[in-house]
Amino acid sequence: MKKALKVDHAAHLAGFGRLATVAVVGVADVAEALHRRIAFPSGSLGTSSAPCIAPLVYSSIRGIAGLVERGFAALPARLPVNEQRLSPEHQALLATVNGVVGDYLVRTNNPLAIPMSVRRSGRAVEVERYALKAAIPKLSGKVLLLVHGLCLNYLQWKWNGRDLGATLARKLGYSRLYLHYNTGLHVSENGQSLAALLERLIEQWPVPVEELAIVSHSMGGLVARSAYYYGTAAGHRWPAQLRRLLFLGTPHHGAPLERLGNWVDAALEISPYSAPFSRLGKIRSAGITDMRYGNLLEDDWKGRDRFASNEDLRTPVSLPNGVQCYAIAAARQKATARPGLGLLGDGFVPVDSAFGRHRRPALDLNFPESHQWIGYEMSHYDLLSHPAVCDRVTRWFAEPC
Fold first, then answer.
1. What's the confidence (pLDDT) of residue 86?
2. DSSP string covering 286-306, please?
3. pLDDT digits over 80-121, tens only?
4. CA 104/CA 310 separation, integer angstroms
5. Which of 176, 195, 318, 361 has the fewest CB atoms found within 10 Å of its own CB?
6. Residue 112 lies inside a defined structural domain of this protein
């Protein structure tokens, strides 16, 4: 029998309670809209003098849910979070919730929202010279940051008992840190925050920095590219220290599942009877909708309806100049004699998207052939620490820049 997940931290229990009450209100809104459409298809409430009970019922549901939500909202300020008490299962649940509705959590000041930080040995590390020195034994000038993907967290770099970051540290002498962040925010918001964090990290690193390397998985690669763009624009020093940038299953040109979800939303709105259900699809976060085409910049979404069925309007952003960039894609099928042809990818990210290929030359990322590799018979999550992936990355990173 599966063990039920226990959420025993009071602040997070309050946060989940607030989300639950909002969900009740959302379902009530959909139900009322559908009820009105079926009962009054013309849009008019009719000429009947009989009292309309339904609006009163829905209004009462919303009112009660609002009172409960306000009660939960009063709790977290007095209940600081001790992350050392959170189980890996609890943290995985938090990461998933942040991926799905993380932007809403931030807007509503919900304690479930994950702030950006760097982690080591399961603990948050203050980006300050003495704290870094205390947290990282055998500290070197080779800095490695691992950036997780959508709905994941820093703990999930240890996949199937293996850890790519630990492998690179052991074999090549990197001092590693893991980024932890709210994947439901816009990629550009996380990119700007990461750019500022990296600038402080390089400034506070206890020994002279020889090399900065970033290993990213899925959405993490978009965040890393966005950070480089904003860091360069701001005149930061860290982009000049960046030597290697690895992308593991990054949807550089988007993920088909999000495009399909957007199409379903648009299809539901065609009929007045199905239109209320389109609201359910619009709870997904800004981070998820950025995955439709691979948005990196604020200009890619600002002033636009992110749920509209629109075309790809991204500003082209090339790979960082002077940085060794590598791309690994996963493919569910077995190896083929014609690699890259007809490969659907790992179920989430097509091979062409992972390799940055695009029919528009301005958007094509042009990874060198020697810096591309396909992991056959692998899933999207196998890329985190599959032995073959670890071996390929180690060989790449061992080469001189």
1. 75
2. HHHHHTTTT--SGGGTTTS-T
3. 455 666 788 878 888 888 988 889 889 988 888 899 999 998
4. 23
5. 361
6. no
Amino acid identity, residue 68? Answer: V
Q: Is there a single domain that holds both residue 232 and residue 361? A: yes
Q: State the CATH number of the domain containing residue 190.
A: 3.40.50.1820
Q: Structural domain of residue 24, as residue ranges?
A: 10-86
What DSSP letter does each residue of 17-83 carry, written as one string? Answer: HHHHHHHHHHHHHHHHHHHHHHH-TTS---S--S--HHHHHHHHHHHHHHHHHHHHHTSGGG----G
CB count within 10 Å of CB 27 equals 14
- 240 three-state secondary structure: helix
pTM: 0.81
Is residue 15 pLDDT above 70, yes or no? no
Q: How are beta strands 162-163 and 175-180 bridged, if at all?
A: unpaired
Helices 10-39 and 53-73: crossing angle in degrees, nearest 10, is 170
The total number of structural domains that make up the chain: 2
One DSSP character per residue, 149-196 reads -TT--GGGGEETTEEHHHHHHHHH--EEEEEE--TTS-HHHHHHHHHH
Beta strands 242-248 and 211-217 are parallel
**pLDDT top residue among 344 and 357:** 357
Q: What is the DSSP string of 85-129?
A: G--HHHHHHHHHHHHHHHHHHHHTT-TTPPPPEEEETTEEE-SSH
- Partners of 119 in the β-ladder: 124, 178
Same domain, 122 and 82: no
* pLDDT higher than 50, residue 57: no
State how far the Cα of 251 lies from the Cα of 294, in Å rounded to an integer. Answer: 6
- Contact by Cβ (8 Å): 184, 98: yes
Nearest CA to 275 among 97, 43, 21?
43
Higher-pLDDT residue of 314 and 59 is 314
Burial code (b: 16+ CB inside 10 Å, e: under 16) for 198-217 equals: bbebbeebbeebebbbbbbb
Pairing mode, strands 242-248 and 372-376: unpaired
Q: What are phi and psi of 52, to 5 degrees?
A: -90, 105
Question: Is residue 331 helix, strand or coil?
Answer: strand
pLDDT tens sequence across 164-208? 999 999 999 999 999 999 999 999 999 999 999 999 999 999 999
**If residue 376 lies in a helix (H) or strand (E), which one and from where to where?**
strand 372-376
Compute how many other C-beta atoms are within 10 angstroms of the C-beta atom of residue 288: 24
8 Å CB contact between 368 and 377: no
Residue 373 amino acid letter? W
